[in-house]
Specification:
By secondary structure, the protein is of the alpha/beta class. The protein contains eleven helices and ten strands. α6 packs across α8. The relative contact order is 0.19.
Length: about 325
């Protein structure tokens, strides 16, 4: 089965073609992403109206590019999987309406996919993983711990109480005048810094050891930058200290959850899973407890349509389809 995946939940318009004969066993024929970083950089974050307007321009060329790279045409596709939420509703609607039009015109089955489910299953694009496994989803819009018990069966263990980790990276980068997107800039800058130079607080939520909170670390950075002490500290050291604090706050709940589960695998996924310090430090900490850590390739950490096609594949393989009155939901629950 050849499945066309379409993703437009935020500022990236993406399309992919995957080939599959059984759930979880896939071959990515093509994965194309139209990035909008240059459009939003001047604002220090994503502007929803600009994101959705740009999707209207790029969504069809992205689909054409993916089909071309996959060496197939629309007539070869057997099903369509499209993100229907959560995300920016204007952006979601562009991808969803496009998928509906293709499904109706070509008489193809279409299924709507939860964006979070795509991230949870993204490691299966490259790895064979025995379920259940523990997944840390960490991105600009989400930070949560899930148990992936089976395809379509997920159990949330903990989540952020305020900001997502990726959002904290972007906001701190803006406070420091580093530009956008913040995660990539801070990661690169941190490699030249000393995290021991500044001691920043780590949030621990009393009575909720598997939850996260990143608003405090953001406030700590803002307070420090407004103090007289900030003048004598290099931006590399501050970036390294901030990144180390965020990584520590991600690792502690993740390992606590892993100790309570009968699984040998921890998966990190989402845009922040591309962070080099998080990958190294979590891998080392997990190895000390006899656990392995897997993460998708960088291109499958950030928003992409291959993970959406994968997440819809098990339903399409069963012959399921959603009706054409399927709607986008900005706050779609998993």
């Amino acid at each position: 089965m050849l499945i066309l995946g379409i993703e437009s939940s935020c500022d990236d318009a993406a399309c992919a073609v995957i080939e599959t004969a059984e759930p979880g066993n896939v071959s990515v024929r093509a994965s194309v992403v139209a990035n909008q970083d240059e459009i939003h950089r001047r604002y220090g974050g994503v502007v929803p109206e600009l994101a959705s307007r740009n999707h209207l321009i790029t969504i069809l060329p992205v689909i054409e590019d993916a089909l071309g790279a996959a060496g197939c045409g629309l007539g070869d596709i057997h099903g369509i999987a499209v993100t229907r939420g959560p995300g920016l509703v204007g952006s979601l609607l562009v991808g969803l309406m496009c998928a509906k039009g293709l499904a109706q015109a070509l008489n193809l089955p279409m299924v709507g996919v939860n964006h979070l489910e795509g991230h949870l299953l993204a490691p299966l694009l490259e790895h064979r993983i025995t379920m259940p496994y523990l997944a840390l989803v960490v991105s600009g819009g989400h930070t949560a711990l899930f148990v992936v018990e089976d395809f379509g069966k997920y159990r949330e263990l903990g989540r952020t109480r305020d900001d997502a980790a990726g959002e904290a990276f972007d906001k701190v980068a803006k406070l420091m005048g580093l530009g956008y997107p913040g995660g990539r800039v801070i990661d690169e800058l941190s490699r030249r810094g000393d995290a021991r130079r500044i001691r920043l607080p780590r949030a621990r939520l009393r009575g909720a050891p598997l939850d996260f909170s990143f608003s405090g670390i953001k406030t700590a950075i803002a307070t420090f930058l407004a103090s007289p002490d900030s003048g004598g500290v290099a931006s590399e050291d501050l970036a390294a200290s901030f990144q180390e604090a965020v990584v520590d706050m991600l690792i502690r709940p993740t390992l606590a959850a892993a100790r309570n589960l009968a699984t040998e695998t921890i998966v990190i996924t989402g845009g922040v899973a591309a962070n080099s310090r998080l990958r190294v430090k979590l891998t080392e900490a997990a190895a000390n407890e006899g656990l392995r850590v897997l993460a998708p390739a960088f291109k499958f950490c950030t928003d992409n349509a291959a993970m959406i096609a994968l997440a819809g594949s098990y339903r399409l393989l069963r012959g399921e389809r959603d009706a054409l009155d399927l709607d986008a939901e900005a706050n779609l629950a998993l």
